[in-house]
Design the sequence.
């Protein structure tokens, strides 16, 4: 049968309570990162760690807000859910892993990857994430609003089309960035002079 109202209310309370660790992390990590612009400009692994930080904060705050029942009733079955999930995975999980790989390559293996390819990788990733999440988020809100107004899912298909095109383009940009990342790491490991600390690949 239906879920009792007290269970739903408890879940909303728990989700809103997640704002406490989220804000604590935001203040702690964000305060630590203040005044590190010079590191941001030079260190790709640090950039990706900051990107993961913002992805985590965004996904966490978004998730807590979506727990509000009146809002969730409008957008739960829309593309906004897809936007939220991808912000957590592509905006937090992927950049965090990439930051570790760049850090490991440079600090543990003592190899220097191509800075130019890493720059392209970072900015293509940023553009891809923002384009994907924003297009699907806006699409989801418009979908939900149309459904509440009485329009059918089939009736919103033409309205959704440009947003799906934007999602496809953003996904392609994101994919190109990750292919550059794989190429950069593979060539760094396989073709760098052995036993030479901080060896540099020339583009």
Sequence:
């Amino acid at each position: 049968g239906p879920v009792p109202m007290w269970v739903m209310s408890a879940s909303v309370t728990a989700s809103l309570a997640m704002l406490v660790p989220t804000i604590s992390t935001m203040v702690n990590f964000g305060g630590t990162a203040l005044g590190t612009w010079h590191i941001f400009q030079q260190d790709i692994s640090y950039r990706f760690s900051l990107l993961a930080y913002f992805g985590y904060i965004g996904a966490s705050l978004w998730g807590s807000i979506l727990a509000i029942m009146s809002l969730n009733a409008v957008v739960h079955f829309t593309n906004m859910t897809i936007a939220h999930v991808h912000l957590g995975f592509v905006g937090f999980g992927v950049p965090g892993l990439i930051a570790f790989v760049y850090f490991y390559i440079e600090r543990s293996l003592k190899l220097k990857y191509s800075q130019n390819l890493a720059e392209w990788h970072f900015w293509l990733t940023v553009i891809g994430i923002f384009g994907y999440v924003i297009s699907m988020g806006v699409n989801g809100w418009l979908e939900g609003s149309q459904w509440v107004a009485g329009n059918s899912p089939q009736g919103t298909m033409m309205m959704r089309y440009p947003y799906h095109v934007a999602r496809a383009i953003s996904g392609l940009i994101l994919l190109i960035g990750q292919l550059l990342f794989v190429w950069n790491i593979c060539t760094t490991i396989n073709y760098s002079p052995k036993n030479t600390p901080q060896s540099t690949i020339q583009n």
Q: What stands out?
A: Strands lie at 111-112, 199-200. Confidence is low (pLDDT under 50) at residues 199-203. Helices lie at 5-17, 19-33, 37-42, 44-66, 69-75, 79-108, 115-148, 157-191. The first helix runs from residue 5 to 17.
